[in-house]
């Protein structure tokens, strides 16, 4: 995985990326300032050709600014942008082989759907512009509406026209700026699948900017989590979720229980941790820091709650934390979400799949169990609230 | 239901009265254009078509009409072009004194026409410019331009800046973006501004009266003629303009209807 750059590497030196092949996109030490405001901070990024790449982050994290710099609608204060081996940093938007699906589509209201789609082809004097525009409209299943004006189409149809208008030019890189933000839930789900299918069919590099972690995880094969102008972590969705390297990623992508612990020793490939009166372990490879005070993390669905004294799901490699008390219970049907207070260790979120009918009531005593292979370790000075509820 | 329904009767009746109120003067002009008038056209003396057959029959009436048309067209073209550019500058760019410039553009709209006319006159006299068609056109361009700027600025402000970005994103250079996207979207505003300019220029009496010298515009001709009797030919010209305006509006409506039908038929 050439694009699996850890957060520690993203602030690194210029030109750190692997050698380019095909029309990869590379950002090298990109910085963008608006007056005193630092929107993008020394960002390095490499997107291999043909990827579905998501830039995920809360609003104001610099993801849209990054996208606009790739499109040529903004110019970086510092750094280089390369498409393939060509340095496009100094070129303007209309000179780049990059197209954008804008957030509110930005269809030309005075042109027919067909002419909207043919716009880019006509500017480049492509001979069979109309035929190719019709093909693109057929791809998004809107060829029967080619004579209409944008105002006569529904939101979902406009969205597809915007996609056709960009895809028809076969750009090296196709940018999607929160393209599903204006659609309702049902349509959004449908378009997620459709976008993914179209990306497969046309084989272009898609860069998708979104603040919706679920959208990023379901659609993209590589996700970059951005925060405050920097990339926190890059990787396939499963990897980011399983092994977050910063507190921000741990909290922004799903939920995490983060607690302060002391490394008390190590045996083989394992680090031993003490938190309050309790003990747990984690694989040394899953810890960013291997001595002193660390922040340990475990996902809520990885914790099993049982009645006090009852046997847990496993013996070896399992941590048992006893003395917990259920503070709140929230039954969602498919699962039950508990908040459990563990004396000396703080509160833990526990998501329990409703395999059995037993639901613990508020005030119930429970023991918590987890598989130690699921624990991850973050630097001891992490802000455990970073990325919480910022969606 | 047999009970008294306000909305059913009141609104059509009141609306009808309002139209009568608005249109009766125009009807008078139209009817009196067929009057077999002698020296004055104030009382009905019988029906004739001779006024329509020879609208330039009365001395100077057509000369004044052509003068006004010329002034109107030239002032409109110049004011629309300059005003559009000015509107772009004021709306799109922030520069030193742009706030002041904004206020100054509004000033001619707020100034009473008599004051405007009188001060323009003293300005022309002080500069030693001979009064005539040129000074009339210059004055008209001045006050028309303010209207153009106000109308078109509103239109530019309502343009979605993302559209121009989308054009740039789709390989359109700066000038190309302007001609293919910005300008077509501004055309309705520009047409409205131009029609308004022409109407104001054609309608103007006060400013022209100060600054036209020996040159006579159509309103000036009517005003002077009123003292000795307006010729029926003036009614013919007025009616003709009214009919032309109606034809223009109907034509535009029909075109839109036809286009809408064509679009939905194909779609």
UniProtKB/TrEMBL annotation, chain A:
Residues 25-253 form the ABC transporter domain. One of its GO terms (cellular component) is ATP-binding cassette (ABC) transporter complex. It comes from the Bacteria. It holds the Pfam family TOBE_2. PROSITE patterns: ABC_TRANSPORTER_1, ABC_TRANSPORTER_2. Keywords: ATP-binding, Nucleotide-binding, Transport. GO terms for molecular function: ATP binding; ATP hydrolysis activity; transmembrane transporter activity. PANTHER family: SPERMIDINE/PUTRESCINE IMPORT ATP-BINDING PROTEIN POTA, SPERMIDINE_PUTRESCINE IMPORT ATP-BINDING PROTEIN POTA. This is Polyamine-transporting ATPase. It comes from Sediminivirga luteola. The lineage of its organism: Bacteria, Bacillati, Actinomycetota, Actinomycetes, Micrococcales.
UniProtKB/TrEMBL annotation, chain B:
It is found in: Cell membrane. The chain crosses the membrane at residues 9-34, 69-90, 102-125, 137-156, 177-202, 236-255. It is a multi-pass membrane protein. PROSITE patterns: ABC_TM1 (PS50928). PANTHER family: PUTRESCINE TRANSPORT SYSTEM PERMEASE PROTEIN POTI. It comes from the Bacteria. The keyword Transport applies. This is ABC transporter permease. Belongs to the binding-protein-dependent transport system permease family. CysTW subfamily. GO terms for biological process: transmembrane transport. Pfam families: BPD_transp_1. Keywords: Cell membrane, Membrane, Transmembrane, Transmembrane helix, Transport. Residues 65-254 form the ABC transmembrane type-1 domain. The lineage of its organism: Bacteria, Bacillati, Actinomycetota, Actinomycetes, Micrococcales. GO terms for cellular component: plasma membrane.
